[in-house]
Specification:
417 residues; alpha/beta; Adenylosuccinate Synthetase, Chain A, domain 3; Adenylosuccinate Synthetase, subunit A, domain 2; 10-stranded mixed sheet; 11 helices; 30% helix; binds guanosine-5'-diphosphate; binds 6-O-phosphoryl inosine monophosphate; binds magnesium ion
Length: 417
């Protein structure tokens, strides 16, 4: 008997509230496994009066009984990971890092920032953390894996050779080669702090599935930021959709159980790139203020707008979503009317799918009556009638059940239907 893993994935442009739902579900799972992204992710979790910001450590860490796996699909910055670990005691035995995950080093961030400067007004608006260059090195087969940290002398020599090979390029970008002796000390420090956590997590995934453990797979970012299925080139550099869980952890499609897609009751985006239902006026400001829409990782204000049912249908199909968790319903409290993008207009024609270049799409809206208050509501029947109608209309438009509704950042303010 082998268990199937439940999967959590973001359906919009990230920051949908994945952390809250992973934390909620971790209470009934034995393992939480992160499969993609790096410390560009920022997952905020509120428990009582304590607030945690997680970037790379799976959001299961706040449940003492859940064990946490960081899979091979992740790019891991040792210095940032070590800092994040300092928030928690006793991680030994409940945190496991794939020896095949790629190492993100400070020079990747320098390259990322240099490229953004060179792009000028075409900049992606990355987090500047080095995500693109780290994945770029992986795909170009010049990256370094976590398993190599176990031999700092050898890895130092490899990184010195990497810099020699890239010298003309790095000189042009102003990226400095590290000092060899200092690099060795740095890598030795990473080995001391992380060595005991590094293991073959692919084998581990197979063993825990065969032992019928309850497993939750945690996505980062969102479908519209996926390297293939998002708004390229304004995307991140990893496979953020559910297929990434297989390659990013070494499991196969038949190992996947229930897929829960996370979506806000409205929509946000950080960084540049198309966002058809963006609101530039007072309504956008109100969403930003009520939703505290400022990035967990960079503090940047998030762009805000209405729920986009066309992009959502695309996301539901790409990910094979079984149920949607609709987050931050309370942020719409107090609006007289709430809008939903139901189709796009492209070149004078109405379409109901995501076109090649979303930049060309103008939203077509349908309005719904608003409501006073949903904040803190914990039962579907206790929601105002207009809020219930809004949720039921969304279900009909996206063709998927909304099985979870969140009405505040608090763990318990969650409606399960
Ligand atoms: P993630 O990256 O998908 O995990 O999402 P973030 O943590 O970056 O952003 C979601 C933010 O919304 C966090 O600050 C959460 O505490 C907060 N949040 C989550 N669910 C709700 C909700 O239902 N209502 C409100 N008001 N805030 C929420
Ligand atoms: P979570 O997991 C929102 C965005 C950046 C930028 C683009 C590329 O918290 O939902 P990158 O640094 O990855 O090369 O930046 O992707 N981005 C996110 N936006 N939430 C995230 O993660 C994001 N991770 C990356 O703002 O537009
Ligand atoms: Mg986030």
């Amino acid at each position: 008997m082998s268990s199937k893993a439940d999967l959590i994935v973001g359906l919009q442009w990230g920051d949908e509230g994945k952390g809250k739902i992973v934390d909620h579900m971790a209470q009934t799972h034995d393992y939480v496994c992160r499969f993609a992204g790096g410390h560009n992710a920022g997952h905020t979790i509120v428990i009582g009066d304590k607030k945690y910001a997680l970037h790379l450590i799976p959001s299961g860490v706040l449940n003492p009984s859940a064990k946490n796996i960081v899979g091979n699909g992740v790019v891991l910055s040792p210095v940032d990971f070590i800092e994040e670990m300092e928030q928690f005691d006793n991680l030994e035995g409940r945190l496991f890092l794939s020896d095949k995950a790629h190492v993100l080093l400070p020079y990747h961030a320098q390259i990322d920032q240099a490229r953004e400067r060179m792009k000028g007004d075409k900049a992606i608006g990355t987090t500047g953390k080095g995500i693109g260059p780290a994945y770029g090195d992986k795909i170009a087969r010049i990256g370094h894996r976590l398993g190599e940290l176990l031999n700092p002398e050898k890895l130092t020599a490899k990184i010195v050779a990497y810099f020699a090979m890239n010298k003309p390029l790095f000189d042009a970008m102003g990226v400095e080669a590290p000092n060899e002796a200092e690099l060795l000390v740095e890598l030795q420090g990473y080995k001391d702090a992380l060595g005991s956590f590094i293991t073959d997590t692919t084998q581990m995934m197979w063993e825990i599935m065969d032992a019928d453990k309850k497993i939750l797979l945690e996505g980062a970012q969102g479908t519209m930021l996926d390297i293939d299925h998002g708004t390229y080139p304004y995307v991140t550099s990893s496979t953020t959709v559910s297929a990434g869980a297989c390659s990013g952890l070494g499991i196969n499609p038949k190992d996947i159980g229930k897929v829960t897609g996370i979506a806000k009751a409205y929509c946000t985006r950080v960084g540049n790139g198309p966002f058809p239902s963006e609101e530039f006026g007072d309504e956008g400001d109100t969403l930003r203020k009520n939703g505290h829409e400022f990035g967990t990782t960079t503090g940047r204000p998030r762009r805000c707008g209405w729920f986009d049912a066309v992009a959502m249908r695309h996301a539901v199909r790409v990910n094979g979503v079984d149920q949607v968790a609709l987050m931050k319903l309370d942020v719409l409290d107090g609006f007289d009317e709430v809008k939903v993008c139901v189709a796009y207009e492209v070149d004078g024609k109405e379409i109901n799918y995501v076109p090649y270049d979303l930049e060309d799409a103008t939203p077509i809206y349908k309005s719904f009556p608003g409501w006073d208050k949903t904040e803190g509501v914990r039962a579907f029947d206790d929601l105002p009638d207009t809020a219930k109608s809004y949720i039921e209309a969304l279900e009909a438009m996206i063709g998927t059940k909304i099985g979870i509704i969140s009405t505040s950042p608090e763990r318990e303010d969650t409606i399960i239907r």
